[in-house]
């Protein structure tokens, strides 16, 4: 069997050694087609999330763990049971050289953020304030302030914007002196 192209006509030749007449077939035209797969993905809840039966449309909150093509949704408290992962809170502290007025810093941050509240620090007995209930800014000395926060992506963004504000205030202070 072979394909012959003679004068622009493609012909499939199927010859055999029988006494029957040879058969000549035209090349087949394959139409374009699309495949649509209608599949449902199914995940199972385990441990604490599996204790309650969910209704259709009800949402569940947890971690999606995929292992060996099996998807499981589990609560944060169950993570250490099924994996070697653990969750921790990281408290961060940074001390910055700042020789400006502490009140100016507080005033500038009030202009940027909705929530800036004063608080009295029990340890150092110095002035301090909190930005968005997450980030604490403490007056350590005439030349230093410290920032304290528990790390996560949102709080780290707030911290970054406070640092930028402090640096801009320092640039303004040094440019006027």
β content, as a range?
25-35%
Can you write the helix and strand succession as a string?
EEEEEEHEHEEEEH
Strand pairing plus helix content: what structural class?
alpha+beta
Low confidence ranges: none
- Alpha plus pi helix count: 3
Helix share of residues?
10-25%
Key terms:
177 residues, alpha+beta, five-stranded antiparallel sheet, three-stranded antiparallel sheet, 3 helices, 11 strands, 33% strand, elongated
Describe this structure in words.
- The chain is α+β, with helices and mostly antiparallel strands.
- Helices cover 22% and strands 33% of the residues.
- It has a five-stranded antiparallel beta sheet. It has a three-stranded antiparallel beta sheet with strand order 1-2-3, with no helix packed on it.
- The longest helix has 24 residues.
């Amino acid at each position: 069997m072979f394909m012959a192209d003679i004068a622009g006509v493609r012909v499939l030749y199927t010859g055999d050694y029988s006494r029957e007449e040879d058969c000549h077939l035209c090349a087949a035209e394959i139409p374009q087609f699309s495949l649509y797969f209608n599949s449902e993905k199914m995940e199972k809840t385990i441990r604490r999330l599996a204790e309650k039966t969910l209704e259709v449309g009800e949402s569940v909150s947890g971690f999606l763990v995929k292992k060996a093509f099996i998807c499981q949704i589990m609560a944060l408290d169950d993570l250490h049971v099924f994996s070697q992962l653990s969750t921790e809170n990281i408290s961060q502290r940074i001390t910055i050289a700042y020789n400006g007025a502490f009140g100016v810093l507080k005033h500038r941050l009030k202009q940027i953020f909705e929530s800036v509240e004063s608080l009295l620090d029990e340890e150092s007995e110095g002035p301090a304030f909190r930005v968005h209930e997450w980030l604490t800014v403490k007056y350590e000395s005439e030349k230093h302030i410290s920032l304290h926060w528990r790390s996560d992506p949102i709080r780290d963004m707030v911290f970054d914007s406070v640092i930028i504000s402090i640096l801009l205030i320092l640039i303004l202070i040094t440019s006027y002196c």
